[in-house]
UniProtKB/TrEMBL annotation:
Residue intervals of the HTH tetR-type domain: 18-78
Taxonomic path: Bacteria, Pseudomonadati, Pseudomonadota, Alphaproteobacteria, Rhodospirillales
UniProt keyword Transcription regulation present: yes
InterPro entries tied to this protein: Homeodomain-like_sf, HTH-type_TetR-like_transc_reg, HTH_TetR, Tet_transcr_reg_TetR-rel_C_sf
Protein's name in the database: TetR/AcrR family transcriptional regulator
Organism: Marinibaculum pumilum
SUPFAM superfamilies (UniProt xref): Homeodomain-like, Tetracyclin repressor-like, C-terminal domain
Length: 212
């Protein structure tokens, strides 16, 4: 049998699948930027990726599944920005938390990106009933970095022993989600505006958390 006629090896098949999956995701992101999550159909994704509709469904059973994959990739990318803050946080706890929240903006700086993320956040809310564990894993990445910063300040004797790190991290995450939605809904707001508001909020939030 000629080498060209031989079936692809397991490794080649795996690489082909990875490339095909990545191409479907890239096509989906392009379509989401051009239109919206609601109006983008699986058929549109298949056409953009130049694959069959069946192939798209083989990788992603629904649009929400595509969305969750995009969100997971975004969380992984933002982990580097979170790490930069957590590795060397400012001496002030409120400032450290504000900078961590600010890191979440990433490259969402244009009206087009803001509109895309409003669609994505709404779709994530709907996806919560479809894949709650996956949605929570995405949220947990930010919360884990928050707890890491809190532990550092506790080790320095700054964070009160009465503060529950898990509860505190949930509160910071709730602030982040509220601020990020507001940021995306307001084309006029800049990343610096977001940071200034986060600083005001975290100063109030941690006022009762630190040792006097």
């Amino acid at each position: 049998m000629d080498r060209a006629d031989m079936p692809p090896s397991g490794g080649r098949r795996a690489r082909k699948k990875q490339m095909q999956r990545a191409e479907i995701l890239r096509a989906a992101v392009v379509l989401l930027r051009e239109d919206s999550f609601e109006r983008t159909r699986m058929e549109d994704v298949a056409e953009k990726a130049d694959v069959s509709l069946k192939t798209v469904y083989n990788y992603f059973p629904s649009k929400n599944a595509i969305l969750l994959e995009i969100l997971s990739a975004d969380r992984a990318r933002l982990s580097q920005a979170y790490e930069a803050v957590a590795e060397n946080p400012p001496d002030d706890l409120a400032e450290a938390l504000a900078q961590l929240m600010h890191a979440d903006i990433g490259d969402v700086t244009t009206p087009q990106e803001k509109t895309l993320w409003l669609d994505m956040l709404a779709a994530e809310f709907r996806a919560n009933s479809e894949a709650p564990d996956e949605v929570d894993r995405n949220r947990e990445i930010f919360r884990s970095f928050t707890r890491r910063i809190l532990r550092q300040f506790r080790a320095r004797g700054i964070l009160s022993g009465d503060v529950d790190e898990a509860v505190a991290a949930d509160m910071v995450y709730a602030l982040l989600m509220y601020d990020f939605r507001n940021y995306c809904a307001r084309p006029d707001l800049t990343p610096d505006d977001f940071l200034q508001r986060a600083r005001q909020q975290t100063r109030l939030l941690v006022a009762g958390w630190t040792v006097c």
